[in-house]
Each structure stands twice: as structure tokens, then as C-alpha cells.
Amino acid sequence: MIGLHRRPRLELMLLLLPGAGFLAALFGFPLLTALLGSFGLVGDDPALTLKFYARIFTSTVLLRSLATSLYYGVVPVAVTVVLAIVLALALRRHFAGRKLFNGLYKIPLKLPKMVRDPWGIGVIAATTWKQLPFMTLVITGAFAAIPEDIRHAARTLGAGPIRAFLRIELPLALPGITAAVLLTFIGSMGSFAIPDLVGAPNPLPLSVRMVRAFAEGDMSQVFAIGMVLSAFAFAVLIGYYALTSRVGTAKGDSR
User: Fold this and answer.
1) DSSP code for 99
2) Which residues contact 236 (CB under 8 A, 6 or more apart)?
3) What is the pLDDT of residues 131-141, one digit of tens each?
4) How far is CA 38 from the centre of its chain?
5) CA distances (Å), origin 75, targets 5, 176, 185, 219, 223
6) Crossing angle of helices 219-254 and 51-58, rounded to 10°
7) What residue ranges define each of the domains in the chain, with the CATH number in brackets?
8) Could you tell me the pLDDT band of residue 75, with boundaries at 50, 70 and 90?
């Protein structure tokens, strides 16, 4: 019986092998090259070293760049997710001011006044405007997947609109929300164009310093910065899976 159960799983793995192998080669080889290069093992004179990582975590300039990358990664996502949830809820209803949301495209017209400010307001506003449509679409789909019967049942049992949203709708939509947050955080923290164009001249985020190190031919430093940014992306990814699995377990227990 155990062999019969394993056979379909083996066949499924073999069917997925060509596509998965192609993706592994497409993304795995550059990642492996970057990993080896970050330790100085790529180039004309390879030698194992940790100096490029040490430079990131001991240099005041690069530490400020890391903090700036986290700032540009977290704050736009926090602002965007709040706005996206509000928009997702509003788009389910018809009301007199609905056309007001059509004016969102005018936000970038105000950006020239916020260029190079020390708090990065221009970067946050531009990143929020860029990510808002994507996040709103994902979160709208997450709320749309909640059956209307659940909302009606919550209201029938005495829950007000706010309580029904916080206790019923938000937890059910949380996997979709966290997925949108994950994708936008990775994109925001690794963004180069917006921080380079409208961000403060100092401190620069790691993504901008990585491009400048590439222009200077310092490839080992480029690899090290890329691995640090990837490590934060993987950490967020692991947190996403931990959160969604916990939510899934809670749903199963409640049933």
C-alpha cells in the first residue's frame, strides 16, 4: 500500500521535473554565482574571504544604506497595504465619492516638491503609487473570495461592521494580504530607479550602492550586497509561510 501511495507522487515529481529543473537552473545558477562571488570565489584571482560582508556590517555608510533599504522597503508597504485594504473595501460598494479614487493618478504630480527630502517622502509616495494597483487587485480578490453568507451570519449574530471586519473578514483575507505584502516588500526594498531618482543623496539604499559598485567593477561587493538583500527577502518569505500555515491551522481547528 505504501508503494502505491508513493507511485503517484513519484510520477508527479517526474512530470514537474522539466519545468522545475529549468527554473532551478534559470534562478539557481545566478544565485549560486552571486553566493560564490560574495565570498571572493569568482574572478581572475579567487580567494575565500568574508571582507565584503564585513564591509557591509562594519561600515557606517553601508549600515546606513541597509537601514535606508529597510526603511524604503517597510514604510511604503505599510502605507500601501492600508490604502489597498480601504480601496478594496470601497470598491465593493457604490457611493457618491467613488469617482474620487480616479484622481489617484495625479499623485505623482506632487512628487517634484518631495524630491531629495531627508525623510524619503517622495520615494514612499512614488513607491506607494506604483504598488497600490497591484496590491489592491490582490487584496480585492482575497476579500471577494469570502462567501457573503459568512458576512451575513456575522451581522445576524450581532457583530457590527467594524467587528465583523476585524474578527471575520480580515483573518480570512490575511493569506492574500500577506502575499501582496511579501511581493511588494521584496520589490520595494530592492528598487533602484525610484530611490535613485527622487531619494535623498545620503544615505543611499543598498540597491543604489549595488548598482554603483557594479559600475565601478567591484563585483564581489555587488554579490555580497545582493546576497544580503536576498537574505531579507528569504526571511520575509519564511515569515509569510509561517503566518499562513498558522492561519490555516487555526481555521482547521475551528472547524
Assistant:
1) G
2) 182, 185, 186
3) 888 888 889 89
4) 23
5) 47, 19, 9, 30, 26
6) 70
7) 1-49 (no CATH), 50-254 (1.10.3720.10)
8) very high
